[in-house]
Write a structure and sequence with these properties.
Keywords: DNA-binding, Sigma factor, Transcription, Transcription regulation. By secondary structure, the chain is mostly helical. Helices cover about 75% and strands about 5% of the residues. It is built from seven helices and two strands.
Length: about 190
Amino acid sequence: MYERSRKVSRKGSENLDKHLLEALYHRYYKELYIFVYSLCGSETVTDDILQDTFLKALLALKDSHTNMRAWLYMVARNLYYNYYNRQKNLFSIETEEVDRRNSREKIISGEGEAFIQNDILEEILHKEEKKRVWDAVNRLKGQKKEVILLQYFGDFSQKEIAAMLKITPGNVKVLSYRAKKELKEYLTKEEGR
């Protein structure tokens, strides 16, 4: 009898874990995908890292994490650096073509002539501006890039970023300032061209 109740209890716990993992996945997958993809630029690597991230989450569900979102970001970041270091040691850095579907121009042709409608032109200009900003962010190196991504795209506080990167909040503030300065200089220089 005792053994049977333990099995039922364990099965109920597994269902709870499954539902909790599904909720975490649906809530954080998209933003984690953007974060990891911006670090590596590879859809395949991003998918692998996120699969491992959520596997670690499943294994760690019973542990108490005060901020699951920050923990997931930290795990994904660490897995990326583990991957990067392995690749660097093997001297075989993957060169995948980056998916640029979202930045393609939408051209509508009518009666044999191509023309661009005003709303499509606005969309293209908006996408081009977003692309310029992403290109500028991707030019940043190391922790400056991570701080900007976590601060503006992950919407984490400086204190949370400091905990994730294992640095002081003061260092986060300095890195953020320097990164924004570099971004401003780069974007201003690009506008002048």
